Amino acid sequence: MKAAVTLRESQLGALFRAFIEVDHNLVVRTAGPFFASRQTEVVPGVQLAELFSLRHDREDNKTYSPKRVIGEMADTPERLELFCKSKNIRLAGIVFSIEGGFLLALNIVPEDFIIEDQGLTISDFSQIDSSVPALTLIGMQRALLAEARQAAIDLAKAQADAVELLDRTERIGRYIVHDLTNYLSIIRLNVANLARSGGSAETSRSAIEAATRHVSDLVISLERLTGHRDVEVQPIAVDHTIRANLAFLEASLPPDFTLNFIGSVPQAAVRVGRTELIIMLTNVIVDARGAMADGGAITITTFRSAHGPAVRLGERGEWVVIKIIHDGPGIDPAAVPNLHDPEPVIWPDSPDFVLRAVQTWARAAGGDARVTSMPGAGTDICIHLPICNDAEVPDHAAASIVGLAPPRTGAMARVLVVEDEIHALDAIVEILRMEGYAATPASNAAQALEALAAAEFDILLTDVIMPETSGVDLAHAVEARHPRIGIVLMSGYFPDESLLQPHWRMLRKPLDLSLLMQTLAAAHAAQAPVRSA
Amino acid sequence: MYGMAHRALRQMMVDRLGPAVWARIERETSTGPADLISLCVYDDSKTLALISASATHLGLPVDEALRDFGRYWVRYAELSSFGPIMDFTGQDLVTFINNLDRMHRSVVLAMPDARVPSFTLLDETDGRLLVRYRSDRTGLETFVIGLLEGLMDRLGEAGEVGVASREGNAIDFAIRLDRN
Asked: Fewest beta carbons less than 10 Å away: which of A8, A131, A222, B74?
């Protein structure tokens, strides 16, 4: 059969990328672009049988010589397949008889439809060859499966990391909450102590100073732990908050100091924690006090400003400026540049530590804190905080953080106080003594047991979370030896109830003085029948 | 864009500035693991937000960052599980560009939501190629320049890529090859 149309070689190559023309002896005369684009052995003059083995669609499965087979297949619809002997390549097509030989109209048949390592490209297939989308699709699926496998591994790892992080955060969070409640207890007890006559003012002030320093340290730790503020902080009225806590702030100062407050922003609210604001002001005041050996005046003023701090240059909005001025000698000017350093090394003992803590806090709240030292004349500390609104501020936002204890109720009950935080221990003991209790301090379980061996007590008041022996274990041990003693536990967390005896009393930290007194009174009253028996 | 682009950008930023910076970018753009799944197609605004944040951290204008990312994208795809498909598309620049649309058609078969561009080789003279890029996206001109530069790197070519003309949603890129 003669060809009905004549194809140019380029057209032939477009349709059959791996065509081969051979003579009647099956010697290659020309080859298609698939071979031409590669350094192959399919070149004119080579015997076809040396390069390929042959298969064709016959049902008798007999082996025939290639010459006979190709001759018989010519101009029929039978499918011819050639297998490359040196490479994993298969060609398939049909045979035409042409002048002086045969045209093997062949295309590539990808082995297993996997593109890896076959050395094939899309150009090796004709434009209409459905192998291309099939190959690419399979390649895509394999790639996506590999990606999905990797994504699953990544997600599993992320989940494991998240669980570990949550676990770590929970642990650290518990430590921080424990410490914070301790420090808040210290502050609350000592402020109450200061408000009374008869207590040791210097001891209380030292305790407050240490506690506020630790609290600000913990605030920084929390900032670092969380990386950013996820919790929505409610707006507070600056003037009201400061005014409501002025007594607390004044309690940080000895009698030879005066603290003045001039508030000019009655309606302005900022989005910061109320306790944080007071703790930061306390820190600044206590720090200033340290620099003013002969006493002096500290003035807090507030005012509005349309100009933000330098680090917020260009940011629009209004600002509340809280300015703390004191007439002391002024902080060391050498420390000021360090304060302005964006990423300084901070040491807890460095002179700028407190001011740095204030600055870190103010920046986290979207503002800044700056210090101007005037040696010999004083120091100005300016805290810029962005005004969030001038709307009505909830009443509780301005509430005082100071709570005062009720009148004396002690009646000479003997209380063994066990607390590993030394400032908290001192404060509790002192306030109990002021309330008329005979309070004995112990800073751990071992000391408590020693004290119990040496004297009798009506009540054991113990912290729960302590190193070595917990308050719960101590309470069990004490009750086993002294079954009549009243047990009162205090903690930021309620321990596992199964570990507690139902008649034990529990106080939550930070301690509410009124509740503490009521609880001790109740514990003492419960001893009365025992005592009278 | 599809998630593979986000993963590639993450890898580029981790390579250049470390994992902490990428973590910051994720926070700044509210990006999480669910935005980094290769198979998923995401709104372009998410991709552009990530690139914009990355540009800030790199200290580059967004266009420069896009160009860098285009170059990186080719390397990333080549080394990823998509490498065999890159190989299959072509082993020289002309073949690769000529086959890109066929390859993209298969991508769409596998990922129907993918919006793929079209590349046509308009002219090939010695040392100069003229490539027409068509896309329903805008603003990715420098990304495409980066892609073409990345392809040249991959296929052992050197030269320059520039914009020859723009019309409608088509941009013609001129590639001058140094083949001396």
From this structure: A8
d(CA B85, CA B104): 10
Asked if A343 and A330 touch (Cβ cutoff 8 Å), the reply is no
Cβ atoms of A354 and A339 closer than 8 Å: no
The predicted-structure confidence for A398-454, as pLDDT tens digits, reads as follows: 433 333 333 344 557 899 999 988 878 887 888 888 788 899 999 999 999 999 999
The Cβ of residue B151 has, within 10 Å, a number of other Cβ atoms equal to 23
By the 8 A CB rule, do A491 and A508 touch? yes
Query: Can you give the length of chain B in residues?
Result: 180
Using CA atoms, how far apart are residues A142 and A114, in angstroms rounded to an integer?
9
Kindly provide the residue ranges of all beta strands, DSSP E only, lying in A346-451, ordered along the sequence: 368-374, 378-389, 414-418, 438-442
Q: DSSP states of A256-314 as a string?
A: TEEEEEEE--TT-EE-S-HHHHHHHHHHHHHHHHHH-TT-EEEEEEEEEESS--GGGTT
Exposed, middle or buried: residue A344 (CB in 10 Å: 0-12, 13-18, 19+)?
A: middle
User: In the predicted model, what is the mean pLDDT of residues B115-121?
Assistant: 91
Domain definitions of chain A by residue range: 9-129, 233-398, 414-532
Which residue of chain A has the CA closest to B23? A227
What is the distance, to the nearest Å, from the Cα of residue A290 to the centroid of all Cα atoms in its chain? 36
Q: What is the Cα B27 distance to its own chain's centre?
A: 24
Strands (E), A158-295: 236-237, 257-263, 269-270
Question: How far does chain B reach from its first CA to its final CA, in angstroms?
Answer: 38
Partner-chain contact B106 A141, CB within 8 Å: no
**Architecture of domain A233-398 in CATH?**
2-Layer Sandwich (3.30)
Each residue of A42-86: pLDDT tens digit?
A: 899 999 988 888 865 555 666 667 888 898 899 999 888 888 887
Closest in A123, A136, A154 to B95, CB measured: A123
> Do A122 and B103 count as a contact with CB atoms less than 8 A apart?
yes
User: What are the extents of the domains in chain B?
Assistant: 3-59, 85-177
Identify the CATH class of B85-177. alpha beta
Q: How far is it, in rounded angstroms, from Cα B76 to Cα B64? A: 18
For strands A296-305 and A319-326, give the pairing.
antiparallel
CA atoms of A20 and A28, how far apart (whole Å):
7
- Whether residue B45 lies within 8 A of chain A, CB to CB, comes out as no
- In a mutagenesis test of the A interface, which of B31, B88, B89 is the best target, namely the one with the most A β-carbons within 10 Å? B88
* DSSP characters over A307-338: S--GGGTT--S-EEEEEEEE-SS---TTHHHH
- What residues of B are in contact with residue A142 (Cβ under 8 Å)? 81, 84
**Can you tell me the ipTM of this complex?**
0.81
Q: What one-character DSSP code corresponds to residue A47?
A: B
CATH code for residues A414-532 = 3.40.50.2300
Residues B133 and B149: their CA atoms lie apart, in Å, by 14
Confirm if A278 and A300 have CB atoms less than 8 A apart. Answer: no
Nearest chain B alpha carbon to A157: B33
Could you give the CA distance from residue A27 to residue A44 in angstroms, rounded to a whole number?
Answer: 7
d(CA A11, CA A183): 89
Query: Position of tokens 């009162």?
Result: A488
pLDDT 10s digits, A231-288: 456 788 899 888 877 776 776 677 778 888 998 888 889 988 776 787 778 778 877 7
CATH number of the structural domain A9-129: 3.30.450.260
pLDDT of A341 > 70? The answer is no
Residues of chain A found within 8 Å of residue B105, distances taken between Cβ atoms: 133
E strand or H helix at A161:
helix A131-195
